[in-house]
Task: structure prediction
Amino acid sequence: MTTSGDFIDPLTLMRIKSLELRAKAVVEGFQSGLNRSPYHGFSVEFTEYRQYAPGDDVRYLDWKLYARSDRFYIKRFEDETNLRCHLILDMSRSMGYGSLGYSKADYARTLVATLSYFLVSQRDAVGLVTFADQMESFVPARFRTGHLRRLMVTLEQQVAGKSTDLDVPLEKIAERVARRGMLVLVSDLLSPIDTLENRLAHLRARGHEVLLFQVLDPAELNFDFDNPALFEDAETGRKIYVDPNTARANYQQRLEEHIAGIRSICDRLGISYRQFVTDTPLEVAMGEFLRSRQHKGSLPARTSAANRRAA
Amino acid sequence: MSFLAPLFIAGLAAVSLPVLFHMIRRTPRGRIPFSTVMFFDPSPPQITRRSRLDNWPLLLLRALALILLAIAFARPFWRATTGANVAVNDGRQIAILLDSSASMRRGKIWNDAVARAERIVDDATPVDRIGLFTFDRTLKQVVGFEESSSLEPAARKKLLHQRLAETKPGWAATDLGEALQYVAETLVATDVKTTDQQSGKSKEIVLISDMQVGSQTRPLGRSQWPADVKLSVERVKPSSTTNAGLQLARSAAARPTEEDKIRVRVVNAANSTREQFQLRWQGDGPFYSTEQTIDVYVPPGSSRIVRVPFDPNLSSPAKLVLTGDDHDFDNSISVDRTTVQNLNVLYVGSDTASDPDGLRFYIERAFPDNGLRRVTVIGQPPGAPAISPDTHNVGLVVVAEPLLEKQFDWLRRHAEEGGTLLFVASSADVYQSFGKLIGKPDLKVREADVAGYAMLGDIDFAHPLFASFDDPRFADFTSIHFWKYRQIDGDKLADCRVLARFDDGTPAVVTKQLGRGSATLFASGWHPADSQLALSTKFVPLMNGLLELNAGRLDRQRHYTVGDAIPIAARANESATPSVVHGPESQTIQLTSGQRTFTDTVVPGVYRLGDAPDVPRFTVGLAASESRTAPMPVEKLEALGIPLKPTETPATKAAAAQRERQLKAVELEGRQKIWRWLILAAIVALMAETWLAGRTTKQIAIGHAEGAES
Result:
C-alpha cells in the first residue's frame, strides 16, 4: 500500500480523540482534493409516474397532470434523499487487535465515521448497525439534524462483543432494513465464511447494494512475529503455541485462502469488496471507496433497477 | 560417611534447578493476544531444537558443582576410619568432698553420705582419677589423686572403700568455702602437673553434705573459681528435721550480780517442726538437781537466751543437756566454774590516779574488768626502795619515771621470767633508764624538735601489739598528734625491734625481747602535754595488747569451740608449761616441749592442762553455726560463682550423650576437613563449566556469523 504525504497518517489521525473531528479531518482533506476530482455529485432525484390503481393513496395523485391529460397518475418519489446507506460495523473482540498503536476497531470506527460524515454532508440518509455475535445497536438511516451526532455516539462505544458471528446480525439487518439501499459491511471477516454467502445473497436478493470492507492489521497479513509464543485468540481465548518462523508460511497461505474465498463470494454476488489495511491513510480508503462507487457507474437504486430491467 | 549438618543435603535439590530453568525456558516467554488463531495449526507445538537438552556436559558440570557444594556445606566426615583416635574417653577427675562436720552426726545421714561416695567410686571408669577429701573446719585429704591413680582400678576401689569405712564424722564446724576453694585449686594444680594428654579431663567436685545453712562459705565470693571445675552437690537429708542447739552465751557469767546463773543460748533450726524444749543439768549441785527441768520455747529459726541456775564454786565441770529435739549431737555443753583472774599492773611513777595531766590517770581506766579478769593498778612511787617481790600476777609494769638502781634487778628478772615492761619516755631520763635496762647505758637522749605536731607512721602490724589494728578500718594512726617526743642520735637501738616510727623516722615504739618477756618503750607520753594518744581509740587496745602480750589469751576465754588452737604457754609467775593434756573422754595427749598451743580439740568437753589436781581447765564446745541445720539452697553456691553440674535425669543424660556425640562429630570433621576438598572440586567443576560454556558460545557466535554472511 502506498501512502501519500498529503494524507494524514493514520496514527496521527487516531490521536484525535473525537471521532467526529477525526471524520471531519478526513473528509475535508479528502474533499479538498475532491473538488478537483471528476466524481463530484452523483445524487440525482428520481420520480416516476404510475397509472392510478384503486387502493393507491390519493394524496400522491398528480392533479396538474390530470388537468392536462385527464388521466390519473400517481406521482411517485423515489425518496427524499438520494441515498439510504446503512453502515454495518463489526465490534467483535477480534477487531480490538492492533499492532500499530491503534486497533482495527479504531480504524474501522474512523472509517465508518468518515463515511457517515461524508454521506451526511451530501444530505444522504445514513444508518448504523453495530454487531458482534449479536446485533449490538441499530440506528435507522435518517437525514435530520443531530443524526450525525447520534451516529457518532453509537460509534464511540467500545468493542464489547465476543466472537464474530455474521449470521444472526445479517439476518436481523435483512429483516429490519426494508427499503433498498446501500449496505456497507465493515469487518475483519476473520470468522468461518461457510454461511456468509447465503446471508449476503439474501441481502442482495432484497435489492440492497452491498459493499464489503475488510479491515486487517498489517501484522495479520504479514505475521512478522519473531519469537515463539503462546498466541491467544481474542475471541475464543484459545491458546496455541506457535513458532512464527515455522508457522508463518502456513498461516499466510491459509489467510490468503480465506480472503480468496471471501473475494469469490463477493464476485459471485456482485458485491464490491475492498481490503483496508490499517496502515493505509483513510483518504486513500475513501478514494478507493468512491472509485468503486464510480466503477459501479450509477446510483444504487437505479443501478439495481437498471440491472433488474436488464435482467 | 556422616554429616555434621545434614540439613544442607537438602541443597541437593538445587541440582534440579538447571533442569527447572531449562523447563521454564521451554515454555514461551509470554502470551500474545491475537485476533484469531483459526489459521494456526491446531496440533501441539513441536519440540523445537531449543527445547531439547542440547548441552549435556554443561548441565552435568553445573549439577556436579551444586552437588559438591551441597555436600561440602553438610560438612561430611568419616566416622569409621579416624573415629578410634577421637573416641578415647579422656575420663574425669573427680574429687569426692565429704562433709564430716558435727551436723553429719544427725540420724543416718553419715551412712547415706558414705554410701553415695561408694557409689561414685563404683561408677567411676578406670580412666577417671579420683581423690577423696573430708572437711569440717579443716580439709583433710583421705586419698590423693596421685595415690589413687598409681593403683590398679580394683585396688583403688578397695582402698577408697576401706578409707571411706574408716572415716567418721567429727565435731567441728563446717567451713565449706575453704574446702571447696582448696579442692578446686588442687584439681587444677594436679591437672597441670600431668601431661598434656590428660589435661582434657573434665574436673568435677562431688560434694556430699547435708548443706546446712550454718556452713561457712566466705572465701568463695572473693576469688575466681576455676572455670573448668564443675561442682555437683549430693545432698543427704535426715529423716526428721527438728534440731535445737545449746551454746554458752559469750561472757556467760558476765554480770557480777548474777554469779549464781549462767546464760545459755538455745537455737532452733529453721526447718524444725517443734518449738518446745527442756534444759536439765546432769550431776548434782547446790542450786540444781537432775529432776529440775527448765522449759524453753523457741520458734523455728530463732534463738533464746536462758538464764540457768549455776553453782560458781563447782568443783568439777557439769553438763547441761537440752532435750526435745530429734538430734542430740549439739544438745549438751560442759560448764566449768568461772574463776576470775586477778591481774596487777605496776605503775612506777609519782603522779596520782586522779590527775588528768599525768600518765596514771589514763592507765587506771585502760583495763576495764570483765567476768574473767580483774585488773588492779598498783602505784609504785619511784622513791620506794624496791618493788615488792610479793606482788603476784603482775601482768604489766609501766615505768613512767627514771628507775633507781635497786629497781633494775627486779624488773630485769621479772622480764626474763616472762613479764612485760613498758617504759613511757615522758622525759629523757626514762628513755635512758630503758637504755640501761637493755644494756645501753650511754644513750644520748634529747627532746625532739617538733614543728607543729608529729604523727605515727611505718607501723609494724606483724607484731602482736599492733596485730589487732591490721585492717584498713583500724590502721589509721595519723589522727593521733604528738607535740613532744624524745629521740636519740645515731643507730643505738639496732638490736631492738622498732614497732612504729614518727613521721621523721625517729623510733616511736621500740621493743626488745628480754628472756621470755619483753621491754617496750614509748618515745612519747600519752598524757595531754605530750600527745593525743590517751584520748584516741587506739589507746585501750594498745594497753590491753601489752597486758596480754605474754600472758596469752587463756585468761580471757576459757570456752573454746572444737578445732580452736589453745595457747598453753606458761605465763609469768605460773607453773611451767604442762607436758600433757587430758581430754574429755579420758584420753591423754602428750605435748612436745616448746609447744605453745594445743590444737587437738577434736571432741567437745573439758580439757585439763597437766596432771596436778588444780590445773587450768577449759571447756570445748560445738560451734554455734553447727546447730543451724536448715538446708542451704544450692543456688547460693551458684550465686557465689561456682558452676553447678546439672543433676542427671535420663533426659539430661540423653541430651548430654547427644551433645557429646555432636562434639565428637565436630572434632572429627574439624580434623578431616573433607569440605575443603569438596569446595575445591566444586571450583574446578565451575571452572570447567565456564570454559565449556565460553567455547560453546563462541562456536554458536561463529555459526551465526557464517550464517549471516551466507
Summary: The first strand of chain B starts at residue 2 and ends at 3. Chain B has a mean pLDDT of 82. The domain at 341-551 of chain B is CATH 3.40.50.880 (Rossmann fold).
